[in-house]
Amino acid sequence: MQLIDGKLLSKQIKEEIARDVADMKADGQKTPHLAAVLIGANPASQFYVQSKVKSCKQVGFKSTLIERGAEATEAEVLQIVEDLNNDPDVDGFIVQLPLPKHIDELKVTLAIDPKKDVDGFHPVNVGRMSLGLPSYLPATPYGIIQMLERYKIETSGLHCVVVGRSNIVGTPMSILMSRKAKIGNATVTITHSRTRNLKDILLKADIIIAAIGIPNFVTADMVKKGTIIIDVGINRVEDATRKRGYRVVGDVDFENVAPKASFITPVPGGVGLMTVTSLLMNTLQAAKGEVYG
Ligand code: GUN
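Above: the input entities. Below: the structure tokens describing the complete assembly.
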């Protein structure tokens, strides 16, 4: 069993980005600039946005954080998006989800200029991805592709089972794994909460990508020997032995599944760290005009 080390990979990728940014600056080009919009006080969202801003600093990007309280109106958020679309200094921006219930997330996502949509959530980017055209890939799937590529894992012809069909992980991941590309060319099965005989399907998988959001959902009896396991879950479970009262576990029962796996991503220290790194990669591409020219 080989561990896919998200901590090490994200450090390497950040160093590569930092070198690129230093070269751009030395060349007289503008500093890549990511803006993040955070509405309300969701603790997980605050944590994610802070780590995005911190990562920008690490690689030499400029970052702007626009924060509003949960009482912000939809019109105000749409105005912020409009202003960022029109700000020539901002290369890319994200609106952290979830938004408060009175704000229509789809409306906000549709208002983002696809050229600045470094989250890859706008239907134009989703469509371009589906057609294999240049696009911003959503951060988590992009991070997983990086992990597979950098660990030289051959996916062509393998049976990949994706557990979960969310718009930001399961669905794009299933598209990417089936694409005609270096990481891709897999035979993909996408499964979800209504899937029957999930265990039988998982036992036929060569690659399992677990993104269902249920702690320790994939157990050892569901996995054949030699499977490549990608665990996207970030679940808090109560743990009185920890100072903060909880620990973070994945969607895979790591302890019992790892001995059967050929490769496996840990939680923490796996996919989660790659997500922010991918956002930086997209922002760099935006600054260089690599996706839309
Ligand atoms: N909420 C959870 N994941 C994400 C993400 O990747 N981007 C944004 N904008 N919101 C999120």
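Note for the figure: The radius of gyration is 19 Å.
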